[in-house]
Amino acid sequence: MINPAQEPIAVDRARSLHGMVVSPHTPASKAGHQVLQQGGNAVDAAIAVCAALSVTYPHMNGLGGDGLWLIYDASTQQVHGLNGSGRSATYLDANTLLNGAELPQRGAVAAMTVPGAVDAWWQAHQRFGHIPWASLLQPAIALAETGYALSSSQFRWTRKDRDLLAQDIGAAATFLSAAQVGDSIQNPALAQVLKTLAVDGAEFFYRGAIAQTIIDYVAPLGSPLRLEDFAQHRSNWVEPLTTEYRGHTIYQLPPNTQGLTVLQILNLIEPDDIASLTQVDYYHLIVEAIKLAFCDRDRWAGDPTFTDIPIELLISKAYAAQLRPQIDWQQARFQQGPAMGGDTIYAAVVDHQGNAVSLLQSLYFDYGCGVVPPDLGFALNNRGTIFSTVAGHVNRVAPGKRPLQTLIPAIALAHGQPQLVFGTMGGEGQPQTQVALLTRVLDLGLDIQTAINLPRWRWGRTWGQSSARLALEGRISPEIRHGLRQRGHQLQIEADWSEAMGHAHMIQVRDDWLLGACDPRSDGIAVGL
């Protein structure tokens, strides 16, 4: 179906026997590599990567955002889920918010959920960490103090968000100083925060001076967050969801994430011989399966403490068999969907013992709500913007509630061992890209770098669009576009290598070798030990 010769296999893909780190920014990948060299395990290295990305990719993640993890423990051959997403403010006035047509998207008023990333680092280290916590933050501290080169991604998003950032004193002072890609950026305020975290741990962030500084700044500007919200926050260890696909067990996080969506799509397409499909049939089948799965996501994916969700039914093979007849091979289903942001980072680590981490961190929108409390050096998230104002909706805004999380790290196991550790940024596109990667590797037998490099698509509605379209990278051939239009797909053609398709990364375990592949749409690298 797909000719691997369409895209060259990147010559710089990493190969190692002893450990692998991949992230969307080179200094962060190297920070994780440094920790592995020091004897740290996959969790230790992942924390170092997260902290470094918080410094060097601040437009997409940071201490003011959330983090969601899957951790494979080689000693027990178990996969553990860690939900590091924050809950909405206890004193959030839902009735007032529901009087508006839409929830506020930017500004301090949009800062309505507690940042969960730092506590996720802490909980992961408390349970699985091997080397001292303080040492894991040192690479990030050095980057914040001595400086890092402004990435092309940060440059583009800062230019786009210049007016937003200029409206906030802290954001303007922190992020509007650099003029060109490659300029050296320092963040002394963030360096000081990280130094204190290195000594005092998460307690300092949630029940100390950081929480106080955040509240003192955003509460007078309209944020509903209060000190009690920070003090009560805890990440949760959760049981991952799974399905079987081509002899592999695919792991995803449960709601409040959209992880069940990936499992549903795989169940829907599993009966088909993917390798024998034409390219038009391939795109059409998966997009139509995506639409069906998104219907259930939009109906059911929310905070399970507020709604009983029939998860086992939704991810069952029998339920997929009931849905499959709704797929028309000749005609695209007309369907709308909610608009979702998706500016996120994905990173993966595998160590020499076979432990693996798959994780995402996010502010939701680029630079979150656009607010940076002075002297802290990081932006606050606007994840609460994804709440619904529709009565009875599973994701309806409410106090103390976790909103829908688009973040879905993934791991595929075979015979109890990790085979693929993978994920992507991209909000609505995350489940779509994950299915693209899995089918290209497991069905078509492609190299993981080629699977990432091949053109991608994204179905859905992004902010500013009135209808849901099928966005295609420009490298997808005119013949495929014509075939999809004939079946009723409304197409939107993106750049040949569009960042809108996400930054997807993978680590593959094969014959004791670790292969790492980084998305050329990002500024990152895969580094082997």
Low-confidence region ranges: 3-11
Whole-number tally of structural domains: 2
Spatial shape: globular
* Beta strand %: 15-25%
Name the helicity range: 25-40%
Please compute the radius of gyration using only Cα atoms.
21 Å
* Order of adjacent strands in the largest pleated sheet: 1-18-17-13-12-9-8
Structural class: alpha+beta
Distance between the termini: 35 Å
Major beta sheet, specifics?
A: 7 strands, antiparallel
The number of helical segments is 20
Total E-strand runs: 19
Query: What is the average per-residue confidence, as pLDDT, rounded to a whole number?
Result: 93
What does this structure look like?
The protein has helices at residues 26-37, 42-56, 94-98, 117-128, 133-136, 138-146, 152-160, 162-166, 169-175, 188-200, 202-206, 209-218, 227-232, 259-269, 279-300, 311-314, 317-323, 430-443, 448-453, 478-486; strands at residues 14-16, 20-23, 66-73, 78-84, 148-149, 184-185, 236-238, 241-245, 248-252, 343-350, 356-364, 410-414, 417-424, 457-460, 469-472, 491-493, 504-510, 513-517, 525-528. It is α+β, with helices and mostly antiparallel strands and 529 residues long. The chain has two domains: 23-235 and 344-386, no CATH class; 238-341 and 408-528, Serum Albumin, Chain A, Domain 1 (Orthogonal Bundle). The strands form four sheets. It has a seven-stranded antiparallel beta sheet with strand order 1-18-17-13-12-9-8. The model is unreliable at 3-11 (pLDDT under 50).
